[in-house]
Amino acid sequence: MFTTENLIFRGFADEDLDGILALRSDPLVQRTQSFSAIAPPPFSKYKQYMKTFAEGSSLWFSLVHKESYDYVGYCCINLLEAKNRDARLGVTISSRFWGKGYGTEATRFTVNHAFKYFGLQRISLDVTESNVRARTVYTKLGFKEEGRKRRGNWIDGHWEDIIAMGVLDDEWAELHPSIA
Question: Is 138 contained in some domain?
């Protein structure tokens, strides 16, 4: 278990499944997702899917608010190519906690931890074109746009692009020397 200014970072526990289900069922959160965004019934099957996903991740942090102990969301790292020390970041924050800096705090800690303790040389992610808030956070932290999957996400009756972003270990260390 780790802590930052506002968050507790801990491993996955079965008790997180209701929080994950609520998170992934939130229409505002669903708008930011480009893959299996909706938590479909039967919910027990979806919970099992998310449990398998969490337990299969190279790194999983359930995010809990330090003062209220409310479930805030999760961050995960999945190793894409071990030979190339390349991984993918996933971040999902409950809409109740948007605009408070928790996404930035969670992303910064998770990426730093992955570079420092996993020996990765790059971390990438995908973000939907309309998720300006997340794109701003990722850019501020040092991620760069690397490409686009044109018309890769159907949302609200129209297509939008999925933007691929990434950051390299030396870029991260240069931008975050006090934590790298």
Answer: yes
